[in-house]
Every structure is written in C-alpha cells, then in structure tokens.
Design brief:
Strand order of the largest sheet: 1-13-10-11-9-12-2
Order of helices and strands: HEEEEEHEEEEEEEHEH
CATH topology of the largest domain: Barwin-like endoglucanases
CATH architecture of the largest domain: Beta Barrel
Oligomer: single chain
Number of helices: 4
Radius of gyration: 19 Å
Number of strands: 13
Number of domains: 2
Largest sheet: 7 strands, mixed
Structural class: alpha+beta
Length: about 230
C-alpha cells in the first residue's frame, strides 16, 4: 500500500498482529476499501489419500476422466469427501479435481503444474489466499481484504496480511458464503483459532490500486493455464 495516506499505520499488515486489537481492527480498514457484507464463513482443504484417515479403505470406487478413462480406484469415504472438497492428491502423487457430471457420475481431471488443484478456470488454489465465493455476491477475480485474518500466524510461519483472492466457487452455491482454502492443513481449526468457530466475517473489496499491486505480487502462484 505504498503511497497511501494511511500506509504508515497499516505497515503492520503481514508482519505482526493488529496493534489495535481485533474489534477496532475489524471496524477501521484502509481508506478506499468497500465493505461487501459479513457472509457465512468456513474453510475447506485438499485431500491427501496417503493420510492416515484413509488407510484401510478398500479401493472399490473408480475415478474416471470425462472420456471414461480410469484415473484410479479409491475408497468409498475418500471419494465421497473428494466430491465435497473438490481436489485431492492421490497416493501416487497425482492431483485430481472434480470436473463435471456426466450421466449422473462425477468425472475428474488429472492436473499438471497445480500442486493444490484449481478453482475457477485459470486459477490455481493457493493455501490461505484463495477463497471460495458465490459469484452472484462476489465476482470471481475480486481481491478481498478480510481483517479477521490479518495478523494470523500460518503453518509456514508467515503472518497473514488479510488479503485474499476470490478464485473459487462452492459446489451448488445458493447463499452468500465465503470459505478459505487451507491446503493440506488438517489442523486448520488450530491455525484459525477463534475464527474456526465464527459464523461470519467482514469482507471488503480492496481499491483498484491495491488490487493491481496484489495481483502482480501473487500472479505467479495463482495463474494456471493447464
């Protein structure tokens, strides 16, 4: 936010917890940001077939590509969860995404160069940066500021600055909801702390200048051409 009149105060973003404390931090945001509301809030992850929670399952379910080619055989619970979460890493390391329903059966895409899967067309999922939104309420591609995330310490040791990207949509979205992609973090509730039990969070659209800077900064992480 270099060049902003309020840049000196918000220089803490991405480095420390908000010096104001959560209540004031969520009510006073950088000038020019537009509040989009307080949608219902949650998180989602990429599944890992090699994780202990899936051990011992008989591989009785087939994952097929759009043209009917067999991708892999997996356990029944794993497939059910995959259809909810949307992305998984198979035991052999391949990343698969749900693609489309054909004849009442979900079909899958085997991905290249997308270690966490893909969201909306052209966008890779980025842990703790990608959010899933209902595009009727928040257009895909919108750069967002979630003050509740600012100052959060992530598993990588990074301090979150609160900025996220609306690069995914939930399956069959009908309500105004937002969900944060947490990658392979199976202990996301611990990472998120009190946020894990929040019913809703305040969401802001950043100004054009900030959006340009952030899109340029993260482009290499979220761009995907297949």
């Amino acid at each position: 936010m270099v060049g902003r009149s309020d840049a000196s105060h918000f220089a803490w973003l991405g480095h420390t917890a908000c010096p104001w404390g959560p209540a004031r931090c969520e009510s006073e945001v950088p000038a020019g940001f537009t509040k989009l509301g307080e949608p219902e809030w949650g998180s989602y992850r990429i599944l890992d077939e090699a994780a202990s929670e899936w051990q011992g399952e008989a591989s009785v379910e087939r994952l097929l590509t759009r043209d009917g080619t067999l991708v892999a055989r997996v356990g029944r619970r794993f497939r059910q969860q995959l259809e909810l979460e949307g992305t998984a890493r198979l035991r052999d390391g391949r990343i698969v995404n749900v693609e489309e329903m054909i004849g009442g059966t979900q079909r899958y895409l085997v991905l290249q160069n997308a270690p966490y899967g893909i969201g909306a067309p052209g966008y890779q999922l980025v842990p703790y940066r990608t959010v899933s939104v209902n595009p009727k309420h928040i257009p895909i591609g919108t750069v967002l500021y979630l003050p509740s995330l600012a100052g959060l310490k992530l598993p990588t040791g990074e301090i979150h600055d609160g900025f996220c990207f609306a690069h995914d949509t939930p399956e069959g979205a009908t309500d105004n909801t937002i969900a944060l992609f947490v990658g392979f973090d199976r202990d996301a509730a611990s990472t998120l702390g009190s946020l894990a039990t929040r019913r809703s969070v305040a969401v802001y659209r950043v100004d054009d200048e900030t959006a340009t800077v952030l899109n340029r900064r993260f482009k290499g992480q979220f761009d995907w051409s297949g």
